[in-house]
Write a structure and sequence with these properties.
single chain; 180 residues; globular; eight-stranded mixed β-sheet; alpha/beta
Length: 180
C-alpha cells in the first residue's frame, strides 16, 4: 500500500511538470514529454554532494549527442527552479563539456562512445540517464524503458552512490527496477 501511495505522489509531481498536458479533454502525453518531465523530477528526488553545489544560479540538464526531445524539454523546464536556481537545458557535443551539469542525458547516437564517455566523467557527480539498452549495466545510473506502452525507468543505485548521489526512497519505489 505504501509503495502505491509513493507512486501516486511521484506521478502527480511528474504531471505537474507537464504544462498544458492535462487539457479539458484527456490526452496522453508523448513519450518525450514524459521523459522530459522525468528528467526535471529527477532533480527533485536526487541529492548531490555538497562539494558539487554550483556558484551560479542555474541547474543544467545536459543532452549529449542527438537531441530526441526537440523543444519539449526546453518547454517543460521553462520557468522551473530547484533550490531557488533556474533549470536550463544545455546541449553539448562531448562529455568533456559537461561543465556543472546535474543531469546528463546521453542519446543512443552516442552508444558506441559510451565507455569512453562514462570513463571521462570519472567520479564527477552527474546523474547519467539514457534510453539505450543495457545502459545501467554498462555503468549508467538511470535507463528509460518502455513497459506495456508506458515510460518507466531503472536505476543502478550502486553507480549513483559510488559518485556520491543520494537517491530518494520515493524515487526508488517508483522505479521499475533498482539494481543494488
Amino acid at each position: 500500500m505504501r509503495r502505491s501511495a509513493v507512486a501516486i505522489v511521484f506521478f502527480i509531481s511528474l504531471l505537474l511538470a507537464l504544462p498544458g498536458v492535462i487539457p479539458a479533454q484527456p490526452q496522453r502525453a508523448s513519450e518525450y514529454e514524459v521523459k522530459a518531465a522525468y528528467l526535471l523530477n529527477f532533480l527533485k528526488f536526487v541529492e548531490w554532494p555538497g562539494s558539487s553545489a554550483q556558484a551560479e544560479n542555474i541547474v543544467p540538464i545536459c543532452i549529449l549527442g542527438r537531441d530526441p526531445f526537440g523543444g519539449v524539454l526546453d518547454r517543460i523546464v521553462s520557468g522551473q527552479q530547484i533550490d531557488g536556481k533556474s533549470v536550463i537545458v544545455k546541449r553539448i557535443a562531448k562529455a568533456a563539456d559537461i561543465d556543472n551539469c546535474r543531469v546528463l542525458f546521453i542519446d543512443s547516437s552516442e552508444s558506441s562512445q559510451l565507455p569512453g564517455t562514462l570513463m571521462s566523467l570519472d567520479d564527477t557527480p552527474v546523474l547519467t540517464v539514457a534510453e539505450m539498452p543495457d545502459f545501467v549495466s554498462r555503468g549508467g545510473i538511470i535507463q528509460f524503458v518502455l513497459k506495456e506502452g508506458r515510460v518507466r525507468f531503472e536505476i543502478n543505485l550502486m553507480n549513483a552512490q559510488k559518485i556520491g548521489l543520494m537517491v530518494s526512497s520515493q524515487m526508488l519505489n517508483v522505479a521499475s527496477a533498482v539494481r543494488r
